[in-house]
Amino acid sequence: MLRGQENWRSDHNLLLREPDQRDHYLSEDQLRRLKQALDEKTYRKGTKDFNKTLCRLRMIVLIAVTTGMRDSEIFGLNWSDAMYSEGLLAHVFDYR
């Protein structure tokens, strides 16, 4: 199975990250362009209908990029974890 995964990755120009390779951080310009691309899709194309699905995706992407949280941590968030007046997300994770 591993051989099949390697072939699929090479066919789709995907590279595995080396274990000792440093994490990649987005530049200010890349962050700005990402947010702009997400903001452009706020409304459904050609209408004034609010795109709820993309709004949720936008929040997930922005939380991931700005906090470094993993997907399981993001999906484990509750509304009570949002501290609006402080501009914070506060969540205690149980890693049992």
Task: Jot down its keywords.
96 residues, mainly alpha, two-stranded antiparallel ribbon, 4 helices, 46% helix, globular, disordered N terminus
Task: Explain the layout of strands and helices.
Elements: H1 2-11, H2 28-40, H3 52-67, H4 71-75, E1 82-83, E2 88-89
Antiparallel strand pairs: 1-2
Helix pairs in contact: 2-3
Structure in words:
A two-stranded antiparallel sheet has the order 1-2. It has one domain (24-96). Helix 2 (28-40) runs antiparallel to helix 3 (52-67). The protein is built from 4 helices and 2 strands, in the order H-H-H-H-E-E. By secondary structure, it is mostly helical. It starts with a helix and ends in a 7-residue tail after the last strand.
Query: What would you call the shape?
Result: globular
Elements, N to C (H/E): HHHHEE
Number of helices: 4
The average pLDDT score comes to: 76
The share of residues in helices is 40-55%
Question: Could you give the count of β-strands?
Answer: 2
Number of spatially distinct domains: 1
Radius of gyration: 18 Å
Question: Which regions have little confidence, pLDDT < 50, spanning 5+ residues?
Answer: 1-5
Q: Strand order of the main beta sheet, please?
A: 1-2
Distance between the termini: 30 Å
The biggest beta sheet reads: 2 strands, antiparallel
By secondary-structure content and strand pairing, the structural class works out as: mainly alpha
